[in-house]
Amino acid sequence: MALHIQMSDEALKQLKRAAFMSRLVSLAVCTGFLLGFGTILYISITIIQGDPPAEFIGYTAAAEDGPPTDSPTVKELSAKVSTPTPTVAPSVVVAQNAVGAVAAPVSIDTAGEFEFAEADLSIDVDVDLGEGLGNSGAGLGSSTPGGSALEGTFYDLKLTRSGAPSKIANVITQKDEKGKTVKILKVKEPELMKVAHRFFKEKWRMSILSPYYMSKEKLYASSFYMPLAKDAYAPVAFQCDDVCQPAGWIAVYRGKVRAPKTGKFRFVGAGDDIIVVRFNNEDVLEAGYRYPSLYDEKGNDYWISSTSGKLKDFWKAVKEGKYKQFEGYECISTIKEIPLWNQAIGGLSAGKTFEVKQGQVYPIQVAVIEIPGGGCGFMLMIEDLTDGKKVKPGEKYDLFRTNFSTPTAQELFEMVKNAKDSKGVVRSYHQPGVTGPDKVNMAPYNEDSPIWTAVP
User: Residue 11 — φ and ψ, nearest 5°?
Assistant: First the structure.
């Protein structure tokens, strides 16, 4: 017998009604749970916790436009609100979670005292440069790398790479003060000038100097401002005086600098015996007692000074356009603080003009050369010709510098006076007559000179 069971229509309706009610109850429970959770979250964040306090965090802008910080190079550095220096990357304080804040441009010039007249507030910054020779970056430079500087290498052309006398040296045997026989190396000046002429003519090709002795020590210069010193000071500064004798050397500084503004400039300087500047792959300044570009094997046409008797004729020929390499050059003889330079070589030499764009990086090389011996020294300024106005007599030129360092006469005098030789003996390497800071024969400069930041 077969059994057949079938749900009645009324029972089916009740079952469907129960299922529908169950869905409604589930939906109501879920909705209530979500509303409750949202309410609790809102109360916790907006009512109980409240607005989060603004948190200040220190942020330092990327130092791409600022000097490297491998080592400090600023001595007695202070700052004041002045003409903005666009290459400085200032530290900025940012308020985290702050809304609608607008940051005003920040410009800091650290050339003097940083003053807020309204608040009667001043900030004096003094960064220790450390001990040792030339740590300010002035003179022949600091032995500490970094700090926005150009790297300098010393070559003694009297010696070969192995330290033996080269063809440029005359070897003289004589007795020293203790009666001991010693060899003195004297320079064959025409031979050295021949090498210098070739080096500059062939666009500063370093392989020309590679046959000669190179110091192991590098120096790092942030400016070229060196008082008149004995030529023996250079081997001491480069820590090779145990090998190298005075005279017959060349120091070459190389690097890249970032232009602080868009405009037209020219270098102004002097060198004993020679200073040469190459900027953006062009020789733009050649100054001093001797001019390598004038070298020829016929005689001393390259020797230009009051002693040679060719000083007036040389500058007359330059003014008349006789020399293409000196086009635009001028003799600056109006600076009263440098009587020795005025008397010997007519003063400072202003070189070729060149143009730069703000923020763009340019290669630069500076060479200083001492030939026969006696004294050495140099100074390198820069003149802004962007507005068409030249520095007038009595006004100061800008110091060419790659960081904040501003060398003083006192600092430079002490640097040369207290130099230590390779044996650790302190002795003065000043020229006779340089008896104090007031006798260093250096041209004054603007202390707020723009910074041509050195970059890798």
Answer: -65, -35
Q: Is residue 6 part of a domain?
A: no
b/e per residue 403-436 (b: at least 16 CB within 10 A)? bbbbbbbebbbebbbebebeeeeeeebbbeebee
**Cβ(188)–Cβ(194) below 8 Å:** no
Token pair recorded at residue 109: 């010039």
Instruction: Name the nearest CA neighbour of 228 among 455, 3, 441.
Output: 441
From the number of C-beta atoms within 10 Å of its C-beta (0-12, 13-18, 19+), residue 240 rates as buried
Q: Which residue has the tokens 């990327």?
A: 62
Structural domain boundaries enclosing 312: 150-455
Cis preceding linkage at 273, omega within 30? yes
Q: For residue 345, which of 310, 371, 320 has the smallest C-alpha distance?
A: 310
Domain annotation covers residue 442: yes
pTM of the model: 0.71
Contact present, 266 and 284 (Cβ < 8 Å): yes
DSSP letters, 92-145, are EEEEET--S--PPP---BTTS-EEETTTTEEE-------SSTTTTS-TT-BSS-
397 assigned to some structural domain: yes
Q: How many domains would you assign to the chain?
A: 1
* Residue 353 CA from chain centroid, whole number: 20
* Strands 397-399 vs 445-446: parallel, antiparallel or unpaired: parallel
Of 197, 233, 177, 218, the closest CA to residue 373 belongs to 233
Residue 250 lies in a domain: yes
C-beta neighbour count of 140 within 10 angstroms: 27
Tell me the three state secondary structure of residue 233: helix
74-86 tens-digit pLDDT: 343 333 333 434 4
Distance CA 55, CA 324 (A): 63
Q: Residue type for 432, please?
A: P
pLDDT tens track for 133-165: 334 588 899 998 878 999 999 999 999 999 999
Residue 106: name the closest of 127, 77, 85 by CA: 85
- Please answer whether residues 446 and 399 qualify as being in contact, where contact means their C-beta atoms are separated by less than 8 angstroms: yes
